[in-house]
């Protein structure tokens, strides 16, 4: 079979990248040979050394739905969950499922040996977009360390917004920033965009957030990644609409606005401040977003609801128009 051969020091980063590309063959186990790690893949991967080798076959664990059906019978059971550090989170639209907390915890623990705790997310609440959580099993804590592209983030699911599905988006945006630029992140949270940017570019990032818990975590995360940062991050706790009044026109090359339900309320201020680009995140159908921002580059980054997604709209002076 085929495997990507990488140095041990690069293995975790490459594995994450190959998983995002959906090319890792989960039917076989990863193997260490000398100073290299062999990652099984479904097909040749451009840009990597690919070798043919015999690897040990992996026994496929039951999916969450399969496990629940085995224990509880057929039903409209949850199919997926997310893992943040050593915590698992499952989104439940039906609170009736909370009574199956024991079975949910046992099924997830069976396939995720490193997970120490399981929480149900019943939505978000408050102006800080904090998850409404119910403990289902394991350790009763919401704080953990979480990695993205070799960077370490201290997060607390109960105190600040976290979405591991955005890891690739964090990296992609960081690579779009240029060395020496000034960047404003108006809704920075625990610092995902700023820290990714500062790890890749010699940029200065002003990072604002209204949530004091998120800003405290951001400061911790800057310290945790200090040796990996090439740029400078300036964290500010406050309301972006008030803080930005102190900045002169065209103070920043790039403005990031990742608050999909409210970001457009701040768009005129972002246009005043930005010189090169505004990265605006909005919710809608592809047709709605195209109609509102014709001619602008767009990318769907997250599924939101049937027919709707969270979109990143890249606004440059040529397509700014009126908000």
From TrEMBL:
InterPro entries: MeTrfase_TRM5/TYW2 (IPR030382), SAM-dependent_MTases_sf (IPR029063), TRM5-TYW2-like_MTfase (IPR056743), TRM5/TYW2-like_N (IPR056744), Trm5a/b_N (IPR040601). The keyword Transferase applies. It holds the Pfam family Trm5_N. SUPFAM superfamilies: S-adenosyl-L-methionine-dependent methyltransferases (SSF53335). One of its GO terms (molecular function) is tRNA methyltransferase activity. One of its GO terms (cellular component) is cytoplasm. Coiled coil: none annotated. Residues 81-323 form the SAM-dependent methyltransferase TRM5/TYW2-type domain. Keywords: Cytoplasm, Methyltransferase, S-adenosyl-L-methionine, Transferase, tRNA processing. Gene3D superfamilies: 3.30.70.2580, Met-10+ protein-like domains, Vaccinia Virus protein VP39. GO terms for biological process: tRNA N1-guanine methylation. This is Methyltransferase. It comes from Ignicoccus hospitalis (strain KIN4/I / DSM 18386 / JCM 14125). The lineage of its organism: Archaea, Thermoproteota, Thermoprotei, Desulfurococcales, Desulfurococcaceae.
């Amino acid at each position: 079979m085929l495997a990507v051969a990488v140095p041990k020091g690069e293995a975790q980063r490459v594995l994450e990248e190959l998983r995002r590309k959906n090319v890792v063959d989960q039917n076989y186990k990863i193997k260490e040979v000398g100073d290299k790690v062999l990652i099984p893949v479904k097909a040749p991967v451009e840009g990597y050394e690919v070798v043919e080798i015999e690897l040990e076959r992996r026994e496929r664990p039951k999916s969450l739905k399969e496990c629940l059906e085995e224990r509880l019978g057929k039903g409209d059971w949850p199919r997926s969950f997310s893992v943040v550090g050593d915590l698992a989170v499952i989104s439940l639209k039906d609170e009736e499922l909370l009574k199956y907390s024991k079975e949910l915890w046992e099924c997830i623990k069976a396939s995720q040996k490193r997970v120490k705790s399981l929480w149900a997310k019943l939505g978000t609440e408050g102006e800080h977009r904090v998850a409404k959580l119910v403990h289902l099993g394991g350790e009763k804590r919401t704080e953990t360390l979480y990695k993205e592209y070799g960077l370490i983030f201290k997060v607390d699911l109960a105190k600040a917004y976290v979405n591991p599905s955005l890891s690739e988006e964090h990296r992609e945006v960081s690579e779009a920033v240029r060395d020496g630029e000034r960047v404003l992140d108006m809704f920075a949270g625990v610092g995902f965009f700023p820290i990714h940017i500062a790890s890749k570019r010699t940029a200065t990032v002003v990072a604002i957030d209204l949530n004091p818990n998120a800003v405290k975590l951001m400061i911790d995360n800057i310290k945790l990644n200090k040796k990996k940062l090439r740029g400078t991050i300036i964290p500010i706790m406050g309301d972006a609409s008030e803080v930005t009044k102190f900045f002169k026109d065209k103070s920043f090359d790039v403005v990031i606005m990742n608050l999909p339900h409210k970001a457009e309320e701040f768009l005129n201020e972002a246009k005043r401040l930005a010189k090169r680009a505004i990265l605006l995140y909005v919710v809608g159908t592809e047709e709605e977003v195209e109609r509102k921002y014709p001619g602008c580059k767009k990318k769907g980054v997250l599924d939101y609801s049937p027919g709707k997604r969270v979109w990143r709209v890249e606004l440059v002076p040529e397509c700014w128009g009126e908000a």
